[in-house]
Amino acid sequence: MRKVQGGVTAAKGFSAMGVHAGIKKDQKNDMAMIYSRVPCIAAGTFTTNQVKAAPVLWDQKMIYETPYSQAVVCNSGVANACTGEEGMDYCSEMAEIAAEELGIKKNMVLVASTGVIGQQLPIDKIRHGIKMLAPKLRSDQEGGHLAAQAIMTTDTVPKEIAYSFQIGEHTVKIGGMCKGSGMIHPNMCTMLGFITTDINISKHLLYEALSSDVQDTYNMVSVDGDTSTNDTVLLLANGLAGNPKITEKNEDYERFVEALHAVNEFLCKKIAGDGEGATALFEVQVIGGESKEQAKTLAKSIVSSNLVKAMIYGHDANCGRILCAMGYSCARFNPSIVDIYFESRAGKLKIVENGIPTHYSEEKATKILSEQEVTAIADVKMGTCQATAWGCDLTHDYVSINADYRS
Amino acid sequence: MRKVQGGVTAAKGFSAMGVHAGIKKDQKNDMAMIYSRVPCIAAGTFTTNQVKAAPVLWDQKMIYETPYSQAVVCNSGVANACTGEEGMDYCSEMAEIAAEELGIKKNMVLVASTGVIGQQLPIDKIRHGIKMLAPKLRSDQEGGHLAAQAIMTTDTVPKEIAYSFQIGEHTVKIGGMCKGSGMIHPNMCTMLGFITTDINISKHLLYEALSSDVQDTYNMVSVDGDTSTNDTVLLLANGLAGNPKITEKNEDYERFVEALHAVNEFLCKKIAGDGEGATALFEVQVIGGESKEQAKTLAKSIVSSNLVKAMIYGHDANCGRILCAMGYSCARFNPSIVDIYFESRAGKLKIVENGIPTHYSEEKATKILSEQEVTAIADVKMGTCQATAWGCDLTHDYVSINADYRS
Questions:
Q1: Which of A307, A332, A399 sits opposite B183 (nearest CB)?
Q2: Å from A368 to nearest chain B CA?
Q3: Which residues pair with B285 in a beta bridge?
Q4: Quick check: A188 contacting B, CB < 8 Å?
Q5: How are beta strands A2-4 and A159-167 bridged, if at all?
Q6: With contact defined as beta carbons under 8 Å apart, do B265 and B358 qualify?
Q7: Which residues have a Cβ under 8 Å from the Cβ of B253 and sit 6 or more positions away?
């Protein structure tokens, strides 16, 4: 497996584009389209929030009820959530316009929205945007890159990645893009993520690969503890790599899962590190776990704690907050045997041994915590299971961004 | 029932004091003592965090194993949490020194600590503090007030209240004090709260009254979602009011419960409104609930959401965030019939009707949200149960305070 250039247009047969349709007040791109020149099988995972945005409901229906998808249309700026039947109608209209422009069936179009909750889509602008997008679709890197830019809201950088791997003489590619960066505490899946691949695989295995991997990737990310109404990850596979169709969990499937995981993990770290207002990517590893579930619960509790996150922002090794966050999680452990370490490019330091702070150098701890990627490792010494979660620090800018998001 | 002056010294026979023992770097008071001239029965509720501070373990043991308590010693600045056996020894020593100074048994002394986790108590300063406190104990308002000041950490105001009510010809008093203001998301009880009363009541009923009321008061407060290692509420009753001993749930018991609830609710609102960095007390009422549990879960999810809290700070009526926070809670409801209102001294406004934003005046909404006490009301229209939760806004100052708490 190797990293290749590009994102959602890396795989054979996919093209994409991003444009400014006028939904956002500034001049930033706010609509994106992904298109495959042949029909794809599609898998999706969606928010577990009971308040589901209209596009989530649309995509769930399409993915489960129709055999093939061929395009995705996405807008940023307005989330089309809490918009009732009118919102569902706009969703359907969005798919219809795209289908007309692309010459495909309406039920082969998936849609996604992100932005302010509780406002209706400006459907005239959306229509105009789709009409601009369709003729501009490009299958090169630039097409994917423009799409990745167009789905951003408070993100500061576009997030895309692609890998290739071999199945016999066939080169398979998989690429993805996603957006954060607030209301991020995915459950079952995340904000918006779009992954394309030219692998030839059964729909059943495509879904299984995705839904299994999101448990260890998107579901282990938290920016602010708020699980969005719009969380969506879509995975499209068009089969153009030409490999013999994967219909069982063989070596080829494992290779695909490995590449899919690499894409998802990369995108997750990008989301966490670019969390609203963040100055650092904060990774938490829980090792020595009795079970994977225990390790995951502890890791997610630490990475979600406001006090731990503020401590990372302040480069202050206030280790009691990590123990405290472990303690109020639902996972059982023995506080009096826990070891905790901080690690970054600046070094590694044991700050807690058997539940009690060590006499570590504050100066060294601050140096370690001042890097842009910081890891906390908690060893609960109960077994061999482990888990990793990703988040970011809690900063003044997070508050600024969210105190006045709509204006 | 009527409000009376004072706090923990309002009830007959109680005295208190606060002094500066040198634990905090600044010149602020950092040690407090409460004393009853006759033995009290005591009830307590404590943190459910698995990482329990040494004083929590001490108090749990004393309250369950000894029939009477007579004094409480509390320090702020160091939490005596994550301090292992050495921390337990210091706890015991703290009780021993106080017992000697007061001429009572060591197991009649309850202790409490709040402040930085993971540091050992400066026991020489503690000893000195206790020796200063004992001879200065005062039974007037000032004694209670100085104690309330001495337990503060990042609190900006002391928090105390007292009520009196009649049982026949006997006037009963109950007063309390508490401290917040970060790592506040109590489960089973709260940070530090101390309540004194001169009522004559059985230990069993005293415990039942307290443990039942904390479910609707302290457990409904959230400042930052972090459940502390030190949460403790102690309730001491010395019987000096002279009322016939309450041994069953009769009218007298109900009167006591009402007064206890008034004290607890007042203190909770004080904690929430004085949350770290807060500019506003944020109250959430869920009405029309199918069950009390459902209403509580929804209310607490709203009040704990970082995005909702940042919105309150920005005076921005971004109602989608409230629906979103309800949606990711574990409580089932129908999003498409929910109404949401904002209310404050500046008026009341329906901002969501049947799950969709109304065409409310943004100007009026901003005016309502600009008050120091703001209420959000969510009507889920499924029944007649309701619940109230208290929190505060998420501000730049919260981040400043917690990015650099220890220095």
A1: A307
A2: 15
A3: B377, B388
A4: no
A5: antiparallel
A6: no
A7: B201, B205, B209, B246
